[in-house]
Amino acid sequence: MSDVIRLLPDSVANQIAAGEVIQRPASVVKELVENAIDAGALHIDVSVTDAGRTCIRVIDDGKGMSETDARMAFERHATSKIREASDLFSLHTMGFRGEALASIAAVAQVELRTCQQDGTLGTLLEISGSKVENQEAVACPKGSDFSVKNLFFNVPARRKFLKSNQTELSNILTEFERVALVNPEVSFTLLHNGTEMLNLPAMGLRQRIMGVFGKKLNQELLSLDVKTTMAHVHGFIGKPEASRKKGARQFFFVNGRYMRHPYFHKAVADAYVNLIPVGEQVSYFIYFDVDPANIDVNIHPTKTEIKFENEQALWQILSAAVKETLGRFNEVPSIDFDVDGMPDIPPLSTAPYTAAPASIKPSFDPTYNPFDVSSVPPSAYSSYHPKGSPDWQPLFQGLEKQTKAENAVLPDNEIWEEPAEPDSAGEGGVQTDLYSKQGAPENSMHHFQFKGSFILTSVKSGLMIIDQQRAHIKILYDRYMSQIAGHKNASQRVLFPDMVHFAPDEIPVLNEIMDDLNYLGFELSDLGSGTYAINGVPAGIEGLNPEKLLTDLLHSAIDKGSKVKEEVQSVLALSLAKAAAIVPGQVLTDEEMDNLVDSLFSASTPNYTPDGKKVLAVLKEEDIENMFK
């Protein structure tokens, strides 16, 4: 039998590694920007074309590479970061495995121009599909200039699974934000198809957060800073009143590296128990500085999952730090009497109390009756009633007879009957009366509201119970979907437009759903820098915060993350319907209940909401009869 086990060619092995490291254009941006930071760059420019499909270019002013290093950098497992296995536990750099550039070159056409700070000439290197096509000396600026073109050109199956340009651009912005948030001393710019999306000069950490997510976030954050022998935990956490159901900005960083850590997230969430509503979250930006020997960053290809040696102790430190910060924020304000510029408080006067003048003595008439016209002096009365004493008797005419009629007691053998109403259902129609008064028409009451949440109505088979909120959600959902499908909107112009700010990674998704938002009734105008004016809102959402509503709709679309436009439209319509629907406990008039029930049963599927929740239930007549046997 012949041998069957063979060594893979380097080109194939690099493509396999690329499947783990380079998953999409955002992965290329992440690896190249991190390499630029490791090279000591203080200014990094990123430019992408067609969300990275066509070209990704990263320019930095770092230390650059020599001719030999430029060639070696694209070899697999070639790195300047480690020399032996023990170096893995003393890392202070972002990259270290030497897989990124080799993986990128295996699935794209790469052009590198680099020059060292003390060099006169730089190096031009062109690689396509792991094959070096050209290398020569050129004149170029100090630092490195990477151009990655036609990503996955030789792996069409991988290219086919890329999402839409808006989704891929959003992923690029997410990776870009993570690097920018942890390196505030480095200036960044990001351009897409020649349009500047972010321009972040070097600044402080809090200012960098504001530069990425908007200045409004500054009012929501509290400073956190705790130093222990095990770790230095610092950053910012959100105020309890700034909690939200969707769109909270939550970041953990350790030693300058972004990480995901559900265990630490639970420590933060537990500190907010009983401070924020159930199901809501707050933003936080928390940075850990720990000894590199106490962490292992080499457990995941993208290095976003990190293992800590003393995880439980760090959990307790983080929990205590968050609670202590919230405690300082919620403490009772006190007055500091030692501050300069305190206003002088005049001393209590020792002068004797001033008595009323003796010449003024109060007088009153004990026999005066304000209801007795005869006791009022004619001069005083005539000033208000010039025609003399008014005649009040005509105002009370007829009241005596009416009072007697109301107080009359009906004989025991008679029942009070209300006026009969016409039967809207016609002969043979369905009776919708629940409680029929004895002797009154059977349809005198169509519906009955129970505890402000359910509508009870009689049907042929028994008693129907309708959840009024879910019924309204179903009605509004059908209406909004009809507006989107028919490209119609029912917008209500606002007198004073509200302003809403979106983060850079939200804007691509916003542009993708802008038409659908317009059909729902939102009218937005772009003011630049991620700020939009809300000039119109859907009719019928009075009392709702349009800024919060828009943010929730946007994050519902982001969470869906589907390429199927109809599914995104359904998510938008359902989110808006839930926000605009009547709430449990809202009392409805008979006319409102009639309209609600009629509209519900005009829908194609009235039994369930779009997300599968039951709208109505029927208590059968025989079951009701069995209750009284």
UniProtKB/TrEMBL annotation:
Biological-process GO terms, alphabetical: mismatch repair
UniProt keyword annotations, A-Z: DNA damage, DNA repair, Endonuclease, Hydrolase, Nuclease
TM annotation in the entry: none
Residue ranges of domain MutL C-terminal dimerisation in the record: 446-588
Xref: PROSITE patterns: DNA_MISMATCH_REPAIR_1
Keyword DNA damage among record annotations: yes
CDD domains per the UniProt record, alphabetical: HATPase_MutL-MLH-PMS-like (cd16926), MutL_Trans (cd00782)
Pfam families, per the entry: DNA_mis_repair, HATPase_c_3, MutL_C
Gene3D superfamilies attached to this UniProt entry: 3.30.230.10, Histidine kinase-like ATPase, C-terminal domain (3.30.565.10), MutL, C-terminal domain, dimerisation subdomain (3.30.1540.20), MutL, C-terminal domain, regulatory subdomain (3.30.1370.100)
GO CC aspect terms: mismatch repair complex
PANTHER family recorded: DNA MISMATCH REPAIR PROTEIN MLH, PMS, MUTL, DNA MISMATCH REPAIR PROTEIN MLH1
Family: Belongs to the DNA mismatch repair MutL/HexB family.
Protein name: DNA mismatch repair protein MutL
Organism: Candidatus Phocaeicola excrementipullorum
Phylogenetic lineage: Bacteria, Pseudomonadati, Bacteroidota, Bacteroidia, Bacteroidales
